[in-house]
Design brief:
About 75% of the residues lie in helices and about 0% in strands. It is mostly helical.
């Protein structure tokens, strides 16, 4: 069978599902958000001073980063789960979150004395960050990997990795409400490592469970 015929067959199979794939992704995302919220509020919950913190730029900027990552990953994974769908534009949007973080880090280096760079990078919660972002994100990752099986991705490892990025962006959004370290230096380092853990798990899950 030619590659084009195989893609058409996979697309037809994905289109014949009981629930349209596009709608199924939104349902799955809602379930994933619910799971992440339950884990978050049953474990660490929001920081006590969250209301005053919401008036600071550094605190709110964390959500700009994490939500941008989640939104761009969601758009890409939906495209990757549909055979023959165009992915170039969605792939290009994946640079948005890293670019925003990079700009924030550069600004931080300009406004913060050099003597404080190390303290802001290390922060006070790096181990909690690297533990709880994967913990909050593992349930959503399982949901997203299940959705990839519901679809028909032609690049399962890549799709699994993007599922990890999506789960990481979602989990990091919840964790940001708890985290007392608001410096972009901390976010760029430890949030990235924590999300990378979920990305690696997603790629492995794509290889093991999403192959066709």
């Amino acid at each position: 069978m030619r590659t084009e015929d195989l893609i058409k067959a996979l697309d037809a199979d994905a289109s014949s599902k009981a629930m349209p794939l596009g709608l199924a992704w939104w349902v799955a995302f809602g379930v994933a958000v619910t799971i992440a919220a339950v884990v978050f509020f049953m474990t660490i919950g929001p920081r006590p001073d969250i209301m005053p913190a919401m008036h600071t730029m550094r605190f709110m900027s964390k959500f700009v980063f994490t939500l941008t990552l989640a939104a761009s990953a969601f758009a890409l994974i939906r495209a990757l789960s549909t055979p023959g769908a165009a992915t170039k534009r969605a792939m290009a949007w994946m640079v948005a979150a890293p670019l925003l973080v990079a700009v924030a880090v550069i600004l931080e280096l300009f406004v913060v004395p050099e003597a404080d760079w190390g303290r802001r990078l290390v922060g006070s919660n790096m181990m909690i960050c690297m533990s709880f972002i994967p913990l909050i994100g593992i349930g959503p990752l399982a949901i997203f990997l299940g959705m990839l099986r519901y679809g028909a991705p032609t690049q399962p490892v890549l799709a699994g990795a993007v599922a990890g990025l999506l789960a990481g962006g979602l989990a990091a959004t919840f964790y940001a409400a708890h985290c007392f370290d608001d410096s972009p230096l901390f976010v760029a380092t430890w949030y990235t490592i924590a999300v990378a853990i979920l990305t690696a798990l997603g790629a492995l899950g794509g290889r093991l469970f999403v192959r066709w």
